[in-house]
Q: What sequence folds into this?
């Protein structure tokens, strides 16, 4: 195989709670992502998936501290980079979309302007040109009547629509690595499918590497090529999707699969 | 770890300062070698070993007056805090429990009082009532009752919907028992924090009123009165007349505020 | 802001009024404004009642004060009659309300002049000081509040919070004395704390009543300099104390906003940190700060009374202080009504501003 695009080595992160007690939430996480692949990261809520992603982005909350480990990206260790250089990577090299898309947009800014702002940041266009480009991107993200929708505020959009706006922002970034953290949580099932299709299509078109975080093995089987299974702050198993479904190695993976196959709950059941 | 220490540090520092003040108020006056209102010929003396904080225009010892004033100001502030807390909480609990018309009328009244800064309200009431310790206490208390009414009412609205309220009613408790014995105690945490803040505001307000010549008046030894006396000499440089009583006042208010902040953090409420 | 719908009272009104009301209702902005104004009026009525009875029912006889300590019973009764104090309270109140309807706040019992004229003369002095102090407050508390939130949990945050707690404990009149002692007595940077202009300098021609602005309008640089010279110290003193709660509010609001998902998004797509703080976070933090600015107004007004006293500033704070001293009830009531009206108007403006800033708030 080729050089990995991103390699996480032995990442330990501790969280300090309000009472000043610390708890290790990532316990030696290691895995790699290769260029152009779609990698899944699955696990229950609280298993450390999102924290791993935030660590990649350098966006861990104040209370969380990286204890040790390395994150290799494009030949450099992100954790050793000066803050300023790390910030410069955000958006242009690594970008991320989050769950709960409506809350992920600035409520006081028209969505068109929010997209245009990202276009200006990363493509160095003038105000007017950036806005026009933003409309194109919105359309690319599957929004119709873009010139009208662009004038809307986030609260006037549905969740699916808001996620499309965020995807348009990712298109403006053109990152080498895109992280999607439960991008469809809280959306209707039909919309969920559409959004996944869109993300997949964009990944293919831009040739971006995608890290998809989810608790839904069904989604993983449809979208991802490889998958890492996470539990209690540790990576339990990394495998190609086909292998994983054929021969789950780790007991925890087997447990996850059994819940997936249960008929008494919907496939996307979550606690 | 450091954060935790700092958090409790606030509460500890505030309590320590307050304890100091209480000690001074308790035993301080007996230790003084002068009388607080006794005039002498040594007027406008600078601070010296004889007069640690100097003397004022009647030759009264400022240290003695500051110590006597501690007793008075603390007494007023604490009385205001406790009385406004008790009265406000009971009113708030009752209107919160019964709701309805009484509630909406009373809360509108509270809104009206809130349209007016507490200090100004106290100022107007004291101005009309006339000057005495009792009147200042009454005025400042009235100004702060709405704070507790609003707070307790809000708490009551949530508490009364909980199951143990129904339980208390269903075993045949009369309403007043349900309100005062069963529900009210569960609403008091935020009010306790508020009480500490109100004590701080009350001490500033009392002194502020006295400074304006309202409530406690000359020649009584009170911090605001003393600062007011000193203010008359502001252009001639007798700084000790106002600096020491003011420092005592601010330190006392600071202690109450620290305790309020500390309690808030301790009980993790915002 | 909570606004309770209040349309039930209109039910038994004549049909003309109903049609009128329906027209109003079809325009959300108008409807909103009307309802808010109606509510404001209701509050104001309440304040008139409270102001009147609070000042009248409590013991203390203005006629006695006015007649002086040596007056006999006869003289006091004469004054009571003259001032209308011998009539039943309800009649006095009706009289007061009727006058109020005519825009008349009654006569000041000391100067024998209409209270509204005296307030009008003195309001600009208070407003100039208050506005200057407010601007200074923002200049102090915005950067401090933002810094404390951005560096939350660090020594910077701790120091700023300590400053805020300390500022909340400082007695304004004491701080004012310290400032005067240092800046006037010791360092001679500030003029003596005696009113708005140096004695001998004439007031600029009255346009706004703000000496700094009026002198500039008249092109009189010397007067402007003198007015500014007198203004900065009291304004800064007041601002220091008001900054304490303001800094706390801004810090809390910023902390809240910085925790929001959209801030994380902005960072994740590479928006520069400075832009995130100053554009995304600050604008959103403004909303909770706005809703609590009534508190700041309270601090400013109450503080003004004391600062005016210390600096002999001829505003309405001094006016009410003098009025209280001699039980000049009409003057006191006029002051209460003025403050309450400004406060209510301010809240109305805040609500409108609120709907301008926040697209989620529609005006109904």
A:
């Amino acid at each position: 195989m080729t050089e990995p695009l991103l390699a996480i080595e032995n990442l330990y992160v501790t969280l300090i709670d309000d009472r000043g007690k610390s708890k290790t939430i990532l316990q030696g996480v290691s895995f790699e992502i290769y260029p152009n692949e779609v990698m899944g990261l699955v696990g229950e809520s609280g298993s450390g998936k999102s924290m791993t992603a935030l660590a990649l982005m350098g966006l861990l909350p104040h209370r969380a501290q990286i204890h040790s480990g390395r994150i290799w990206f494009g030949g450099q260790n992100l954790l050793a980079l000066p803050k300023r250089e790390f910030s410069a990577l955000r958006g242009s090299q690594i970008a991320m979309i989050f769950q709960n898309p409506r809350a992920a947009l600035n409520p006081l800014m028209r969505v068109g302007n929010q997209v245009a702002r990202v276009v200006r940041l990363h493509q160095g266009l003038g105000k007017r040109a950036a806005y026009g480009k933003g409309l194109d991107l919105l359309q690319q993200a599957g929004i119709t009547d873009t010139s009208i929708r662009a004038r809307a505020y986030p609260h006037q959009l549905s969740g699916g629509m808001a996620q499309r706006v965020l995807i348009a922002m990712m298109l403006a970034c053109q990152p080498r690595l895109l992280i999607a953290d439960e991008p469809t949580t809280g959306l209707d099932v039909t919309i969920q499918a559409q959004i996944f299709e869109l993300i997949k299509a964009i990944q293919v078109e831009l040739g971006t590497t995608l890290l998809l975080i989810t608790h839904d093995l069904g989604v993983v089987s449809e979208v991802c090529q490889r998958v890492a299974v996470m539990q209690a702050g540790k990576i339990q198993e990394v495998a190609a999707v086909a292998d994983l479904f054929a021969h789950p190695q780790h007991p925890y993976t087997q447990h996850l699969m059994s819940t997936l196959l249960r008929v008494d709950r919907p496939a996307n059941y979550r606690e | 770890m450091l954060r935790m220490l700092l958090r409790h540090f606030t509460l500890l520092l505030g309590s320590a300062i307050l304890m100091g003040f209480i000690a001074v108020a308790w035993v301080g006056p007996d230790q003084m070698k002068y009388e607080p209102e006794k005039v002498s010929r040594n007027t406008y003396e600078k601070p010296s070993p004889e007069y640690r904080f100097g003397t004022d225009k009647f030759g009264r010892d400022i240290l003695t007056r500051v110590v006597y004033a501690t007793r008075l100001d603390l007494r007023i502030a604490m009385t205001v805090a406790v009385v406004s807390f008790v009265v406000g909480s009971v009113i708030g609990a009752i209107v919160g429990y019964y709701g309805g018309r009484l509630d909406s009328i009373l809360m509108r009244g509270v809104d009206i009082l809130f349209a007016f800064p507490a200090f100004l309200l106290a100022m107007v009431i004291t101005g009309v009532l006339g000057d005495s310790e009792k009147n200042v206490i009454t005025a400042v208390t009235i100004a702060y009752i709405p704070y507790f009414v609003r707070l307790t009412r809000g708490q009551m609205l949530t508490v009364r919907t909980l199951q143990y309220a129904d339980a208390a009613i269903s075993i045949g408790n009369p309403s007043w028992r349900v309100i005062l014995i069963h529900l009210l105690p569960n609403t008091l945490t935020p009010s306790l924090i508020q009480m500490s803040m109100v004590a701080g505001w009350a001490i500033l307000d009392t002194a502020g009123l006295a400074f304006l010549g309202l409530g406690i008046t000359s020649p009584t030894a009170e911090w605001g009165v003393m600062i007011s006396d000193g203010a008359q000499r502001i252009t001639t440089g007798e700084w000790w007349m106002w600096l020491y009583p003011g420092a005592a006042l601010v330190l006392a208010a600071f202690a109450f505020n620290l305790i309020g902040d500390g309690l808030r953090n301790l009980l993790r409420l915002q | 802001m909570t606004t309770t719908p209040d349309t039930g009272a209109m039910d038994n009104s004549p049909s003309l009024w109903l049609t009128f009301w329906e027209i109003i209702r079809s325009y959300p902005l108008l409807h909103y404004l009307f309802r808010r104004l109606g509510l404001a009026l209701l509050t104001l009525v309440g304040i008139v009642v409270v102001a009147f009875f609070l000042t009248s029912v409590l013991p203390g006889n203005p006629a006695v004060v006015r007649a002086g300590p040596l007056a006999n019973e006869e003289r006091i009764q004469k004054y009571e009659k003259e001032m209308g104090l011998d009539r039943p309270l309800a009649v006095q109140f009706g009289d007061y309300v009727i006058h109020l309807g005519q825009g008349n706040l009654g006569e000041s019992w000391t100067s024998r002049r209409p209270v509204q004229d005296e307030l009008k003369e003195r309001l600009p002095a208070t407003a100039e000081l208050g506005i200057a102090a407010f601007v200074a407050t923002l200049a102090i508390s915005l950067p401090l509040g933002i810094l404390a939130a951005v560096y939350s949990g660090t020594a910077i945050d701790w120091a700023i919070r300590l400053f805020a707690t300390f500022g909340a404990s400082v007695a304004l009149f004491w701080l004012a004395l310290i400032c005067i002692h240092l800046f006037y007595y010791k360092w001679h940077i500030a003029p003596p704390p005696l009113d708005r202009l140096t004695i001998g300098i004439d007031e600029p021609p009255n346009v706004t009543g703000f000496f700094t602005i009026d002198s500039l309008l008249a092109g009189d640089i010397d007067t402007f300099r003198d007015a500014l010279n007198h203004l900065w110290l009291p304004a800064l003193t007041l601002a220091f104390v008001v900054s304490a709660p303001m800094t706390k509010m801004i810090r809390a609001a910023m902390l809240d906003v910085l925790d929001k998902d959209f801030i994380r998004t902005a960072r994740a797509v590479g928006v520069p940190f400075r832009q995130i703080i100053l554009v995304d976070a600050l604008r959103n933090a403004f909303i909770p700060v706005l809703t609590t600015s009534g508190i700041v107004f309270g601090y400013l007004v109450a503080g003004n009374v004391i600062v005016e006293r210390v600096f002999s500033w001829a505003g309405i704070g001094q006016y009410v202080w003098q009025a209280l001293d001699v039980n000049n009830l009409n003057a006191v009531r006029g002051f209460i009504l003025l403050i309450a009206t400004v406060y209510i108007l301010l809240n109305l403006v805040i609500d409108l501003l609120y709907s301008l800033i926040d697209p989620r708030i529609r005006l109904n």
